[in-house]
Write a structure and sequence with these properties.
Elements (H helix, E strand, L loop, with lengths): L18 E5 L6 E5 L4 E3 L6 E3 L14 H5 L3 H9 L5 H12 L4 H21 L3 H10 L4 H10 L11
Length: 161
């Protein structure tokens, strides 16, 4: 049996205006948003783009929002408004630095990141592990270690070649 969702968040009750496209401020590529997405990454350049039409509906005050959505919208909003860059932001910047002219590699990393977020929301998991791993997916292990080092992460290289 599927997860029961309140009508305020059930996409069956959404209207066409609840999904919009916004140009990325960095490269102009269109970024698609659902009404309850606070931010999304541009699949072309990795820039974090805010949803100007954010509408969490009942989820912004409901005590069951985390159970309903799979994440706490108050936490997501706080992260979106905070000025600190997350580990994922730093990893993306480092990957972009290494693949300056290889847009396909950058796009691949960002696509894997988006899929990892969707799977994590549906299935659960620790975003501190899943999201950085998604960004590093597909990198040569030596480059992944370099990128982690550049972002201030210390790892032990046990059996990674």
């Amino acid at each position: 049996m599927g997860k029961i969702m309140c009508p305020g968040q059930d996409t069956a009750f959404w209207r066409p205006g609840d999904i919009c496209e916004v140009p990325c401020s960095e490269c102009g590529h269109e970024v698609e948003f659902f009404k309850d997405d606070a931010t999304r990454r541009c699949t072309r350049c990795g820039q974090l783009v805010r949803n100007p039409k954010l509408n969490l509906g009942c989820a912004q005050w409901c005590e069951h929002a985390k159970e309903c959505l799979g994440y706490d919208p108050k936490e997501v909003l706080a992260q979106a408004e905070g000025g600190e860059s997350s580990l994922v932001d730093r990893l993306i910047a480092a990957v972009k630095g290494h693949y300056k002219s290889d847009q396909a590699q950058i796009t691949a990393a960002l696509t894997v990141l988006e899929w990892a977020k969707k799977i994590m929301i549906a299935e659960g998991g620790d975003p501190r592990i899943i999201l950085p791993a998604a960004v590093l997916h597909g990198l040569d292990p030596a480059l992944a270690a370099t990128v982690l080092s550049e972002t201030g992460q210390r790892i032990e290289n046990k059996g990674i070649k």
